[in-house]
Amino acid sequence: MLNNLISVKNLKKSFGGIKAVDVQELSFIEGELTSIIGPNGAGKTTFFDLISGFQNADSGDVFLKANNISNSQPYKIARMGMVRTFQLTKVFDRMTVMENLLFSGSNVNNDSFLRSIFKLNSQKVYEKSLKDKANEIMNNLNIGHMADSYARELSGGQKKLLELARAIINDPEILLLDEPLAGVNPKLAEDILSLIKKLSEDGITVIMVEHNIEAVMKISERIVVLAEGSLIADGSPSEIRTNNNVIEAYLGKSDE
Amino acid sequence: MLDQLGNGLLLGIIISVASVALSLLYGVTRIVNFAHGEIIALGAIATLFFSSPLDYRVLFLEKFSPLGLNFVISCFLAILVCGLFGGLLEVFLFRPLRKNDVGNIAVLVVTIGLSILVRHLYLLFATGKVQNFPLELQRRQTYLFFDMTPRNFNVLIAGIIVMIIVGLLLTYTRLGKAMRAVRDSEELSSVSGINSDNIILLTWVASSMLAGLAGIFQATINDVRWNMGFLILLLIFAGTVLGGIGTSFGAMVGGFMIGILVQVSVGLPFMEGHAEAKNAVALGIMILILLFRPQGIFGQKERIS
Amino acid sequence: MITKRFSLQYIFAFSLTIFSIYLVFFLNPEGAPRIVLNLFTFAGIYGLSAIGLNVHFGWTGLLNFGHASFMGVGAYVTLLLMPHAAGREGVVITTGLPFFAALTIGIIAASLFGLLLGLPAIRLRGDYLAIVTIAAAEIFRLLVRDLESITGGVYGIINYTENFQRYRPSFIDDLSDNLDFSASQGWVCIAAWISILFIVLFLKRLNNSPWGRALRAVREDEDAVRAMGKNAVWLKLQSFMLGAGIAGLSGVLLAFNYGSLESTVFIPLLTFYVWAIMILGGVGTITGPIFGSIIFWVIISETDRLAYILFENANGQQLAGVRFLLVGVLIMFLMIFRPNGLLGKKEELLLDVK
User: Fold this and answer.
1) N or C, which end of chain A has less CB nearby within 10 Å?
2) 8 A C-beta contact, residue B109 and residue B34
């Protein structure tokens, strides 16, 4: 049976009268690797912002499992197991790669002020296990040798990897990836793609916004197309390839 | 309460002109200029130096004689001095910082240092005495429903005219449009052939001249003090923020509102006997506005993504 | 490699500090103990305040320009809870709490004021927060000045030092007789440096903890912190409270150093002094402000000489003018040429904060 993990109803958002997102109904199914594509300004990132709580919708609802998360704080949504990355990579520049991961992996109790004063043994044990986990992830992503470098010393592609590593250290159920391949060299893009594929096979529900249509067609199980904020197509890669609406949306844009 | 309205309008015009200047600079350069008050004081002090009678030797270490020029000419000269000062600041201080990619916050701290430095230069060279422009005393008259001296009424009218001119210049001239283009994106405008260095220089000059004018207004209405700019700096911030930082029209209206608020609040029942705390009311309102409408009353909500 | 250069920075800072203290002895052959004690008392108090500010700005990236008000809340709450006299008439209030109880409440009050002032920080970014904090600090000062019946306004509070001086160990009195300095100031100085010692140890512990790490993450990128499931707002408020509490403690010490307390103490310039010390010592460091504060106060205490060179028979106004002018120059110079100060790490420079 298919489970609707995230569903969106009548979601609307506009900026100064310009419609950014206007989606009647859209659901994402557990375990599926879905890509959201569309021309520039189609509202893809805004759509991500709305479902991850970084922006509040003008109207409409977002459901995560059975919970209405329309007006929830981003951090609360993240704690429910939905973690996102950003179009413009946001790493903690002046912290080391290791610290980036430890911070992201550490749970709220571990971060608490009082625990940090008393530094109980349990905290040390927890930090140790976190460190092992961080090392494992870094090694898998080939950034293990950079563990003690400041994050701002990384290349653009490595920063993308770090952001991805940070997103998965907490074993999320859902990953929202905003252009994971942007500005990444073709070799690394290949690696990131296979990593995403592997995460999906491990059972994580991946939703990604990506401009690289080749890549999207290759790995997605389902593709959702937005144009001017609205849903214009939804289906398997082969269906999308031949969908007239989609061709029109893309070609129409190049005519301008 | 009505009798305070005249005072409110006068304070309003000072803050309004100064807020437009601050807002213009912030809009184009993203610099929160804590030294803005010192440029305001420069306008007043320079006017005092140009216009005071030759035998008036309180100023400037009692060593230099003032120039004793015609008052109106002195005002124009002082405004030019302020423009020159702003231009020099841009060329020798803020442009090099910008070229070295110094962040906004660091520049903000630099302007604080600059403010302290310049203000105490005034204290040393212009002395700490409260001084007045060489103008004869005038009696208050009633205009419509508020009282003020004819001179202050002229200041009010002059201020309004200046702001209308500034508004028109910003909206319709090439320069004004270019300033708005630089404000929207420095990169974009340099691609489209606008020399952003020159625009920023002109913005500094224009902002400083307006600030100098505000200083002359303030000194005409009240008096000249070495720290007169710093005393009203927070009110100027409040006016700018209230209208929406970066919008010139908002700053004009916001400045007026703050001026009137400050003076009218003296007449409020719970403020009886607490006139000294009148600025606190305006600052409190600024904080509330920022809490509930950070973009100000007239500012556009910035798109986050 | 980082550690090596780092320890070199320490050696440099330490030598410079020693040299500047030596300079004071050298320039003041007479009455040196008194002058040096005065210097160390102010350096300790302001250094403590700068350490608190560093929690805000250096650790969390919060642009706090209302630090004087945290010091003020701590000082006023503590003093008003103890026996004192206030106002133009010097109304005597003989009842009150013992010193340590009042101090504890004072520090908590400063923390809570930090919480209150931190609330705007939920929505405001950098420069807006700077404007709000400096405005809030001015509101505080104007209210204190205005509520003359309680706070004494511009006439101030007096007759409170005994609450603290009664705990003075007798060896300070013996020492002060021999070396010609004020015993009560000696006690304040010792209290300030003991406070610094404890606070530094406390912060060192926190800095290497998950909590300290979380604050630094907030400084780097709030959105990413939220996306990782962390409550950035609460972290910022905690930072505000901790730094404000430390500032409150330093405000109390400042009050005991002065012997009388007026609202004019807490003008924005006090905040700018503390900023200068923090930048000089090194933004984001823990011990930096200590070195920064000592060197800063050596500069301040010797500028009068400069004033006497520039102006024959310099008056108080001219002395103050030259002193503040140098503070302005120092802030500009540091920010432009050495923004990491004495001990700050170049890699953690806060220059490109947006």
Assistant:
1) N
2) no
